[in-house]
Amino acid sequence: MVKIGDTAPAFTLKTTDKSDVSLSDYLGQNVILAFYPGAFTGVCDKEMCSFQDNIGRLNEAGCVVLGISVDSPWANAEFARKYDLGFPLLSDLDRKVIESYDASFVGLGGIEGYVCANRVVVIVDSEGVIQYRWNAENPGVEPDYDAIIEHVSSM
Fold this sequence. Notes:
The protein has 5 helices and 9 strands; from the N terminus they run βββααβαβαββββα.
C-alpha cells in the first residue's frame, strides 16, 4: 500500500474534455487526490460538493483538488456541470491508478466483480511525496473535510 512518505505514483488520465492531465503537471503545488466510487451516487455527490464548497480555503493553502473515478469523461463532465465543480475530474478507465494507490473497491452496489475506486483521500506535497492518506472503511463513509483542510493548511 502506498503510504505517507512514499513518492506518489505518477499518472496521466483524461479530463472531462478528454485532454490529458498528469500528476507531474502539479509539481510545486500541494494536491488532494479525491478518489470517489462514482458520479451521481449520493455520497460521492456530497463529497465532491464539499470539496467545491471549500475550494477557496484549499486554494488559499496552495492546494488543488483532483477528483478521480473510473467513470467516463462524459459522465464526469455531466457530474461537474450539474454541481458546478471547479476542479478537474479525471477518468481512470483502465483502473491502473486506483490499483497503484491501493484505492480499489470491488462490488459497489452489490454488483459482483465490478471494480471502482473506494473513497480515498491522498494529499501529495509540492515535491510529489504523500503527506496524508485516508481510506473509507466502506464507500458510504465521508472523509473529515476539516481535518483535510487543516492538514493542507499546515503544510
